[in-house]
């Protein structure tokens, strides 16, 4: 399909509206059938439907069904048209104009206009309205409705990746009227997406029904989708295997092999840029010395972690937070487990007798403490005497996160290399927790934003990644695969590597 | 038993509730972090956090927050859940009903089974029945419910041998049999400890009554053994059992917190843990209040029942 080979510059110049969406390759002998209710099981509570701030793993699929954004990231990791059927950028990438689809209505029947888009973005940028997309959209200087179907953004600085930012999972377009009551947004929804909210029972089930007026002709296929909460994993698995549910949103590593081997089940493993990292605060000893960080890096047995913690369902990472799937990602040299080398480097840094440190890990998800424990074992031979402090997630958030000197972080994948670095590593990053501040690195990221030249950007980002490896602000031991499963009667169930976009309007069930 | 006594008791309940809410409010605020931070999690930038705190009213002084809440409660408004965005009365109300199903069935099952069990043990003192029932009581009292629950799960809900579901909840108004199926293991967990308590109490009290003079007199009068036991002994042995049952309601309210979490029962206990993890103060307060009221009222009711069973008891 031509969509899959589209490159950024095509996207930037703009693209014609089309009903064709990525990954619609129907290899099946019979075509898609309309009707049926898709039952998706999940194990984390849907606590809110407020698209501006929600961040729960089971909340993302809900807003992906109920709402639309200006753009949406496809399974090819490129921005696709959503409410905007096309867009264009000024040559210096400081002005973006989006052309909306004609005739789109909200679920209550009111028409979508450029004014609703303006209202949404004003809310996202309003410091009094909590919203998670602010950090990737704060370069917007002004947003205006040129006419009913045209929205123009002026940016404070050039930003070539802007169509990725408008696809941010929390940048759902909400009507101006609905934005008047932020509390109501938590439990009610009036979107433009393929499904309408019917029942919202946070403790048990969220049910959505087909939006007959969805703007993509012939979609969705399903009559309804039910998100069913199973707080107990054993119960969730049993229900899925017995056919009571059609899709298991997230499969645990420990269950993957068994589920994949079951009859009538199709398990999927998607390489993703989700990673665990070790935060080493660099404004104090011992982490202010790059040799100590490098020594610790050599004290980590990456393949062992993939085998033990992920049960093989992941890939070793080599201290860069940039996933191999991202555009401009460079090949990272392998770092092997070398306790003697680490010991020597530690001695050189002034710690001939090794170091005793306390590594903090939150108890949620379990992968954090598991990582800490494996590190404790392998690092001992390298002269790092680690004490593990596992604590409840709430205490961790309040007392350690963004404050502690040495703890385990856990992050989802971002859509671009710019978003990845701006989240954590630039000096003014939203979640700067390493205190690694490097002017040369900042300048590179700044330069990468402001050019649309492919070759130039490739050069810039390769330099930035080289700097990251040189300085080792984080130890990144592995990338975790995204695991999901569906029954063989369920077609087109897919999870994007970022786990934010699901395209459930393309899913259909055998009749 | 008179009206002033009743008013006196209800007044005490109110004082207890006031103390409980102040204590819970203070303790929750000592915990690190607040609801805004828990909602945003690792998406919390300083600006978002400040904005959400303003939106939720968490930027106000604690005293203002407390009295604002008290004012609402007096007007019958328990406020909104900070985490779930729903009225507290709705969230806690549905959880309360689910918990009452669980606690109610457990209490009913325990009363029906343990009183005859204790009576049999007393009548057949020294026999193998007595020893077995005694042994069962000791084991039941000794095991905490998280151990009992795990044992029951391993025995009856392992993947290889699934007799009962491992957890979950079915609305009894939709599918009563499915509901009972899901209730068996949690009820059994709660019931084991309670049964031990109550049957031991009934046994010891009844043993005492059986060796009392008036029972001997009844026997000498030539009454049938059945009449001696059912008419003269059992009713006079029940008062302490009722007192124990009412104390056990307090235990039951604590027990459901553990049991609901293990068996994924969407009741007050599970909601309380969720609310604590999310620092959802209005929900925490409302649940504590509900539990305190249930406990206080069940004590009051048991006093009244005891007075009815034993005419010598008089309250002033």
Could you characterize what this model shows?
The complex is a heterodimer of chains A (511) and B (316). The model of chain A is unreliable at 1-28 (pLDDT under 50). Chain A has 2 domains: 6-211 and 489-509, Dipeptide-binding Protein, Domain 1 (Dipeptide-binding Protein, domain 1, Alpha-Beta Complex); 271-480, Dipeptide-binding Protein, domain 3 (Roll), CATH 3.10.105. Chain A has helices spanning 2-5, 8-13, 59-66, 114-125, 134-137, 162-165, 233-241, 253-261, 290-298, 302-308, 339-348, 367-380, 393-399, 417-424, 439-450, 454-471; strands at 37-42, 71-73, 79-81, 84-89, 95-100, 140-147, 150-155, 195-201, 205-210, 224-229, 247-248, 265-280, 314-316, 355-362, 384-391, 406-411, 474-487, 490-491, 508-509. The longest helix of chain A is centred in the C-terminal third of the chain and has 18 residues, at 454-471. Chain A has 511 residues and is an alpha+beta fold. In chain A, a hairpin with a 5-residue loop joins strand 2 and strand 3. By secondary structure, chain B is mainly α. Chain B has one domain (88-314): Orthogonal Bundle (MetI-like fold). Helix content of chain B is 76%, strand content 1%. Chain B has 12 helices and 2 strands; from the N terminus they run αααααααββααααα. In chain B, strands 1-2 form a two-stranded antiparallel ribbon. In chain B, helix 10 runs antiparallel to helix 12. The N and C termini of chain B lie close together (6 Å). The mean pLDDT of chain B is 84. The A-B interface holds A 45, 47-48, 50, 53, 55, 127-132, 134-135, 182-183, 186-187, 202-204, 230-232, 234-235, 238, 392-395, 397-399, 401, 410-411, 430-431 and B 31-33, 36-45, 47-52, 54-55, 80, 83-86, 91, 94-95, 157, 159, 162, 165-168, 263-264, 266, 270-271, 274, 277-279.
